[in-house]
Amino acid sequence: MRLRKDINLGTLLALPPASLGWRSSWGEQLAMLRDMGVEAAQAWDGFDEIHRAGLLPLGMAHATRPDELDAIARRHASQGLGFTNLHLGTGFDSDDEMDALAGALLEAQARHGHRLLVETHRATATQDIWRTLRWVERFPDLRFTADLSHWYTGHEMTYGGEFDHRRQRLQPVLQRCLALHGRIGNSGCLQTPLNRPGRYVSHYRQLWTSVCAGFLAHAQPTDVLSFAPELLPMAVGEPPMWLHYQQSVQALPGDPWCGEPSDRMADAEALWDLAQQCFDAATAARSDTALT
Q1: What is the CATH number of the domain that holds 186?
Q2: Structural domains of the chain, count
Q3: Which of 47, 103, 241, 281 has the fewest CB atoms within 10 Å, measured from its CB?
């Protein structure tokens, strides 16, 4: 049982040339990841190139109807992916529609022997914490990718100084996570550098340690917990820009980050270290419990 060093390839998207992760080609970036000890790379497509780079591909997919899930599981299983991370539903789903999605997911997963993980994500069925907790009660076999920035910021988990109480309420989901997306936000911005004032980094440390503890409590000896930093650019593509995960700043002359508030690749390395500390703390706590 261990924490695996993975990455979501959105972290490499549109990096400025001064970044630690910038290379002149996609192939060179993938080789760089392999040489850094990264084992798996998550993406929406391009899995053959990830395989050729010596990395395990991990999938991403969006499904809003139950009849889409079988094809996703079948295709990704045939492409040799480690698992698929799902943005499931729209956020407007009724309880019956959420249940139909969950049932189809579990059936497709069993039929094709391919793990499908539901991501905690805005604009999907999991955007509301309370409804997600009720969903887990009805479908306890669901497993998750925890992108907790969507809940920490979106639900303002620090509101009223009640973070500890709110964190405890998340346990049914935190205990069912097989993957973590490494992104840290504060109460007002979904993705922030790690050196801003506030307690948000210590809060994520507690959340991620809870995820690691839940994994260790239920994992088999050869299981791994995937930790993949997913640090996205301020904007990408042609208008309308659709990625605004971090706050924009004006790029001054000579700014090495071209307006980004930090080097996302350097932040990813710091998040890998932080996640390993959380895993080690959960492992130590488990050993202490076993001895008493």
Answers
A1: 3.20.20.150
A2: 1
A3: 241
